Fold this sequence. Notes:
Helix content is about 45%, strand content about 15%. By secondary structure, it is an alpha/beta fold. Pfam families: AAA_5.
Amino acid sequence: MTPTVPHPVIGLRREREVLTVALRTNRHVVLEGPPGTGKSTLLRSIAAEAGQEVVFVEGNAELTPARLIGQYDPAAVLADGYVPGSFTDGPLLTAMRGHGLLYLEELNRIPEETLNVLITVLTEGEITVPRLGHVRAAAGFRLIAAMNPFDAIGTARVGQAIADRMCRVVLGYQDADAERAIVAAVTGAPPELVGLAVRLVRATRGHRDVRMGSSVRGATDLVLLLGGLLDVRGQSGPGAEGARETARDAAYAALSGRIRVADGVERTPEAVIDDILDDVWPPDGQLPDGEQQAPGDP
Length: 298
């Protein structure tokens, strides 16, 4: 099995409507939610419908103001001086001049010094660059940021000066039907594999020892790995002898890196996966119906 289509936008009707209207009314927006809830996918879809370009920026501690705004090329400055032609636009100016959307991923990982350069852009739609002068945003420019509020490692609280200038749209995990539809669309896998993967993934989110469970991306990876391992091991499907242990191997690979065990819990993600597999697919039980509710499923 191989993925057949990019991650589709399934569901998210209310979030789509709110984000679409926010962009139409010239609002800047923060998309907030755990990984895999469709933040960037939703934005790409809306931008494509509107015919707008999206300039993507990965937020991290290395994103300096110069990298975001742009900077003079030293060789060009030596040859021609500080003229506009010597300046190389960064992603911010590229989006401002090009009527585009600037998408800042991991907003809460960006240094405060870098975020501060956005305040005037958010308020006045312009920025002053030393030696270059004023740059005013073209019509259609918007700043869209994304953040995972549940990740405390390497992050900081976004200051009120930024938060007060942006709207906020919260995305959560979708229901089981939507997640099955997403995984099926991406993988083209049979329903029994899709249903099993989604049940296992959803169970990680409600496990007593887990601080953060897997997103639907984990279900996609699990389906692809499980299908491939069944083929490699000569097992006709999830009902074949030994398929449960094959599912365990696939789940270890697909989910262990996505599960965050709660503070103070001295267990491994693999031990949590063992618990969940025992609940969802008991050793002496039949392959579970993928339509059933997962243990601990909200």
